[in-house]
Design a protein that fits this description.
Largest sheet: 4 strands, antiparallel
Strand order of the largest sheet: 3-4-7-6
Mean pLDDT: 85
Radius of gyration: 43 Å
Distance between the termini: 17 Å
CATH topology of the largest domain: f41 fragment of flagellin, N-terminal domain
CATH architecture of the largest domain: Up-down Bundle
Number of strands: 14
Strand content: 5-15%
Number of helices: 11
Low-confidence stretches: none
Helix content: 40-55%
Shape: rod-shaped
Number of domains: 3
Order of helices and strands: HHHEEHHEEEEEEEEHEEEEHHHHH
Length: 498
């Protein structure tokens, strides 16, 4: 009879105990982690699927992080744009209602309103998020705009808006302050001539009800308008209206009415005893009326024109300045440089659409554009008109100050309400569309993540109830095996022979 070695059976029993202990440890790990395996190898054929699912979930997590960052930036941009809209409303209200008063520093109330609003606008345009300037286009590492002081007053050798307005005003008013017009009288004929420069008044048209007077022009280069009284004096109440084109593209009418009153009132000329006296009175009245129009409407239009040149500039498009000094006899414009003129917009100024200057992939198939530039038409228009309001100096002691203030305020209000051009609301709408795309993408990600996570849980996860049952069963087996092993170790040859 053959006997199996007891030592071999003991070794087998011990190995079984070791295996069961390892299985017990693994079941405890599953119970604590909820995961079927600590590595992909333990998943068998499902390991490839698991890797793919985890990769998709990681990608979605990355997209969601991008959505959160971009959403924060768009939120800050929309807040700034909303505040700009509120400021525009306040400024327009001030333009319509504010009287021509001064504060303790001698600054007009309108100017103070403009300076305060401009300071706030520039601060908003230099808004940052995570070290990125939001209104600088692709140049996210540098401010979008210059400081208020530099824009208005310049920076050393670089001229600011006030200087450009002063130069342009001198050029438009001319040496005699009549807007580059030359008045002359020869006998009974009065003539008005503009000049060939781009500055000052330009004769556009004339309409007349002056009896006996022959009115001709404007025609020629430079344009000339003549009024010949040699046919006889006009009647009381007869009038002539001259229409002038101004540097900002606007126009003004100047009407003079013949009168027998003495002295004549504003915008009236006295009918003389002779046609020569009437012509002289007409020229004197014309000189006074044109001078006042130059000090008011022309000065306001000149400031707007200079502001257009200043704010239409960027790093790739230098501002246009009067070619001087001297400025009151200048005959043309010249391009400024970054060395002699402040460039108000300091961000990126490429040809691509502003929204495309900042993009983010928020889904495998979706890229959102949310960039912005401070020199976009809607923003620039507001900044330009507010800055012009702040820059134009109006002395309350000037008898023409109320009319100048009214002429300027009217132009600024019209420019801020100009139809057909981009507005801040348009920019907000485009950013709101990007925000909606972000929200929709995040909603899709949540649904997709839930589906993928559920699928992944089915592959990787375990049921606590099942694991608990396996642990109990394994404990029972281990206890029985250990008891059996203990009996085997107590077996000896003596006991066997008994």
């Amino acid at each position: 009879m053959s006997l199996s070695p007891i030592s071999a059976q003991s070794a087998l029993a011990i190995q079984q105990l070791v295996d069961m202990r390892a299985q017990f440890d693994d079941l405890q790990r599953q119970l604590s982690t909820g995961q079927k395996s600590a590595n992909y190898a333990g998943l068998g054929l499902d390991s490839g699927v698991t890797v793919s699912l985890n990769s998709q979930l990681a990608a979605i997590g990355g997209y969601d992080n991008t959505i959160d960052n971009v959403g924060t930036r768009i939120g800050l941009m929309n807040t700034a744009l909303g505040s700009m809209t509120d400021l525009a409303t306040q400024v327009k209200s001030a333009l319509a209602q504010a009287p021509l008063g001064v504060n303790g520093s001698g600054v007009t109330l309108a100017q103070q309103t403009g300076q305060n609003a401009l300071d706030q606008l520039l601060s908003m345009l230099n808004t940052q998020s995570g070290g990125r300037y939001l209104f600088s286009g692709r140049a996210t590492d540098q401010p979008a705009v210059e400081t208020l002081d530099h824009i208005l007053n310049g920076d050393g050798a670089r001229a600011g808006l006030k200087q450009l307005i002063s130069e342009r005003t001198q050029a438009d008013l001319g040496v005699g302050g009549l807007g580059r017009l030359t008045l002359g009288t020869a006998g009974s004929t009065v003539s008005i001539t503009d000049d060939t420069s781009p500055f000052g008044f330009k004769l556009a048209s004339v309409s007349s009800s002056l009896s006996n007077a022959a009115v001709s022009g404007p025609s020629g280069a430079p344009a000339t308008l003549s009024v010949d009284f040699s046919g006889g004096n006009p009647n009381d109440g007869d009038a002539i209206t001259v229409r002038f084109d101004l540097p900002d593209g606007s126009s003004e009418n100047l009407t003079l009415t013949a009168t027998t009153s003495s002295p004549p009132g504003a915008n009236q000329f006295a009918i003389g005893g002779t046609t020569a006296q009437t012509a002289a009175n007409f020229q004197a009245a014309l000189n006074t009326a044109i001078g006042k129009l130059a000090d008011t409407s022309l000065t306001a239009a000149s400031a707007v024109a200079a502001s257009n040149d200043f704010f239409d500039a960027d790093s790739s498009n230098p501002p246009q300045r009067v070619n001087g000094p001297p400025f009151d006899t200048a005959t043309g414009m010249i391009a400024g440089t970054a060395a002699n003129t402040v460039i108000w917009y300091t961000g990126e100024a490429g040809a691509s659409p502003a929204r495309d200057t900042a993009t983010a992939r928020v889904d495998q198939s979706l890229v959102v554009s949310y960039g912005a530039r401070a020199n976009e038409t809607g923003i620039r228009t507001l900044v330009q008109n507010v800055a012009t309001l702040a820059a134009v100096a109006i002395s309350p002691s000037d008898p023409n100050a109320p009319d100048l203030s009214s002429a300027l305020n009217q132009r600024l209000t019209q420019n801020m309400n100009a139809p057909g051009s981009q507005t801040i609301s348009d920019i907000q709408t485009e950013l709101a569309s990007a925000q909606s795309s972000l929200t929709a993408a995040k909603d899709r990600h949540q649904q997709t993540s839930a589906t993928l996570s559920d699928f992944l849980q089915q592959i990787q996860g375990v049921s606590n109830e099942d694991v608990g049952a396996q642990i109990l069963a394994l404990q029972t087996r281990m206890q029985a095996s250990m008891q059996t092993t203990a009996l085997l170790f107590q077996t000896s040859l003596v006991n066997y022979l008994k």
